[in-house]
Amino acid sequence: MKPETGTQHGSSRRRLLNAAKDLLWRQGYEKTSPQDVLTLSGVGKGSLYHHFPGKLDLARAALEEVSAELTEKSLSLLSGDDPPLERLRRWLMTPRDGLMGCRIGRLANESAVFEAALHDPIADYFRALEQRVTAVIAEAVETGHLPDSLPPVETARALMSVVQGGYILSRVHQDPTLCTNACRGAMAMLEALAGSRSAP
Amino acid sequence: MKPETGTQHGSSRRRLLNAAKDLLWRQGYEKTSPQDVLTLSGVGKGSLYHHFPGKLDLARAALEEVSAELTEKSLSLLSGDDPPLERLRRWLMTPRDGLMGCRIGRLANESAVFEAALHDPIADYFRALEQRVTAVIAEAVETGHLPDSLPPVETARALMSVVQGGYILSRVHQDPTLCTNACRGAMAMLEALAGSRSAP
DNA sequence: GTCTATACGGAGATAGAC
DNA sequence: GTCTATCTCCGTATAGAC
């Protein structure tokens, strides 16, 4: 295991990355200044520009780590020997901090993301997640757990959107339960679809 | 009709508001500088601070207009004499510019929104929309167009989240069709639920 | 009401000592 | 490698002339 996990321990490079990951989550890219990262990490300005060419490169390195972590966690939730609907529920209903937002999706509206180097780690996460969710839905359809009128890819995108949009509802109303609530609504739809499957 | 609609026409106050509405949509609040607004509107700095105490107040006034416009448009799409599912479809599948994002929801992740004066117009829109979508879903359930295992509020929040999250998918992959795609997925779920209703 | 000129702080980065 | 001092530019706002 790596002992260099906290914001205040490990090499300067590691502390910068950990601080950047934290601040990118809490404030986003544009709102996070190099000074913020230095203050949180307890590192001097010289170290930052020694290890990274600039703010953008630090953010990219941080986001690559976040993307990998999130991908592993999400795919893990969607894996297992249990029925596909159960796996979907485990992913959809996993506890989320609605007020913080998705560590990756949170950045979607920043210009830097739209144009520059931050795009890749962000898109990678969404791509990997979409593939897996689509596969699980397809499996549910094939095994008769969901009606075959459901298009797997579109349905997967709808479910991913529920999660991302749920964060937005939580932020807008400053109510951490709304994200979970939206996911529960989507889960209710899936269950109703599963229930209806065995009728005819 | 009001002739003062464009960015380059009307009084200075109106031009400032129109420019601010445009830039808040395209860049968000934090990224938009007073100078940006002045350049786009063709107005001088003095006029801005004559009509508004500062950037925040200008943004709030602009967002109040956007919120009202969006509320009227959305509620209108959800109104009519046709069946509730048809109204839901009209709202869900209305054309959207995925790359631009929701003019209101786009701001959810900005700190200023979380803490300050911009909160009210944003929350107002989401509140009004949620009420209406919930009502239409409840009507669909009561009239037998959707199964009564669907909780109307949670389902409404899920559908609103699909729209908001769809914008995020579009932004992340820089593909304007993904937002529509996610909405289509949600619509497919609703239709499958409606279809299953008449079976037993 | 509208403009230009000016002020001040902080963002982002560099220089160079240690 | 890490630090402090320094630099430049821009975001935000004020002052005061017209």
TrEMBL record, chains A, B:
Signal peptide, first to last residue: none
Record-annotated HTH tetR-type domain positions: 10-70
> Which PROSITE patterns does this chain map to?
HTH_TETR_2
| Record-given protein name | AcrR family transcriptional regulator
Q: What molecular function terms (GO) are annotated for this protein?
A: DNA binding
Is Flavoprotein given among the entry's keywords? no
Residue ranges crossing the lipid bilayer per the database entry: none
Q: Does the keyword Transcription regulation apply?
A: yes
Taxonomy, superkingdom:
Bacteria
- List UniProt keywords, sorted A-Z: DNA-binding, Transcription, Transcription regulation
List residues annotated as DNA-binding.
Answer: 33-52
